[in-house]
């Protein structure tokens, strides 16, 4: 898919993106050049990572080799963005830099990496179990080949969507922030089970299986969410009693506003 690839910051998300590609032999370990900040992470990767990739400590002389790779994945935390400096002697042409940093705009990337064509990507934490969602916005002058390479990086661990940059904030809110909202809902519903006398662990398991089952039902039978709701809500029954409480507490509005707030916050970072 690509010859050499540089990974600037080899943490949780970068590992989730690169490991399936190495597992499937789509890239060779000797062609992966990654940089991390601490000696601890360096030693940990050398000792424990299952593929024998090249790894360097940031700031070391050897780490400059990453700038000789045509394709780079930028995957440090946003607060470390300022520490990454493009070297003067970038020799190769058609350099591609793919950033997964939350809230760092294409404009900022282009200013910081003028010798690269930049791509901004938003992905989410389920990518670590191969079930991610990835939104991509292309920078100026992107080539067809560069688009293909970028998509291939993410296709093995996530579903890939292409957007103009305006949509990335709402995409981030809905896919990257919402796992925390779902976790909160699971926790709260489980506490409901707990209140009814079920042990916590059992309660949580039931909630998660119910969610998985509900999604399968909607998808397999191609139901709308309203159809599903009507299916389980009988006149004067238990479900309408539950829904009535949620409507009184304005849960719909709370959830809508939570996504809008996450999106607005993401815009502030950009
Ligand atoms: N976590 C999420 O839910 C999520 C979801 C989607 C996207 N993202 C984005 O993905 C990016 C990475 O997140 P993560 O959770 O994978 O972070 P992480 O596990 O903390 O990994 C960050 C990596 O960057 C390295 N690093 C820090 N400063 C560096 C420098 N100056 N030069 C080279 N490497 C440096 C760190 O090295 P050390 O270990 O030595 O410090 C570490 O390997 C973030 O920008 C985030 O916005 C995160």
Strand order of the largest sheet: 3-2-1-4-5-6-7-8
Radius of gyration: 22 Å
> CATH superfamily of the largest domain, please?
NAD(P)-binding Rossmann-like Domain
**Beta-strand segment tally:** 8
CATH class of the largest domain: Alpha Beta
Structurally, how many domains make up the residues? 2
Topology:
Elements: E1 5-8, H1 12-23, E2 32-36, H2 39-48, E3 54-57, E4 71-74, E5 96-99, H3 106-112, E6 117-122, E7 132-138, H4 144-155, E8 158-162, H5 168-195, H6 200-220, H7 225-232, H8 238-248, H9 251-269
Parallel strand pairs: 1-2, 1-4, 2-3, 4-5, 5-6, 7-8
Antiparallel strand pairs: 6-7
Helix pairs in contact: 5-6, 5-9
Bound molecules: NADP nicotinamide-adenine-dinucleotide phosphate.
NADP nicotinamide-adenine-dinucleotide phosphate is lined by residues 8-14, 35-38, 41, 58, 75-78, 80, 83-84, 100-102, 123-125, 176.
């Amino acid at each position: 898919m690509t010859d050499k690839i540089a990974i600037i910051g080899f943490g949780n998300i970068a590992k989730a993106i690169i490991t399936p590609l190495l597992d499937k032999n789509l890239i060779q370990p000797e062609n992966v050049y990654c940089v991390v900040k601490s000696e601890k992470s360096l030693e940990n990767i050398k000792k424990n990572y299952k593929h024998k990739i090249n790894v360097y400590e940031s700031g070391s002389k050897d780490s400059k080799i990453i700038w000789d790779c045509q394709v780079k994945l930028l995957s440090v935390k946003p607060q470390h963005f300022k520490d990454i400096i493009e070297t003067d002697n970038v020799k190769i042409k058609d350099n591609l830099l793919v950033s997964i940093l939350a809230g760092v705009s294409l404009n900022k990337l282009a200013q910081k990496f003028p010798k690269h064509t930049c791509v901004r990507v938003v992905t989410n934490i389920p990518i670590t179990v191969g079930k991610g969602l990835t939104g991509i916005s292309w920078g100026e002058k992107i080539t067809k080949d560069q688009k293909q390479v970028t998509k291939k990086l993410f296709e093995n661990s996530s579903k890939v969507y292409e957007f103009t940059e305006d949509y990335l904030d709402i995409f981030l809110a809905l896919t990257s922030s919402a796992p925390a909202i779902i976790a909160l809902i699971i926790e709260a519903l489980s506490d409901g089970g707990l209140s009814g006398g079920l042990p916590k662990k059992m309660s949580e398991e039931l909630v998660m299986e119910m969610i998985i089952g509900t999604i399968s039902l909607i998808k397999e039978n191609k139901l709308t969410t309203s159809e599903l709701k009507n299916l389980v809500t009988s006149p004067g029954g238990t479900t309408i009693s539950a829904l009535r409480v949620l409507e009184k507490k304005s849960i719909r509005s709370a959830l809508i506003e939570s996504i809008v707030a996450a999106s607005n916050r993401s815009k502030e970072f950009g």
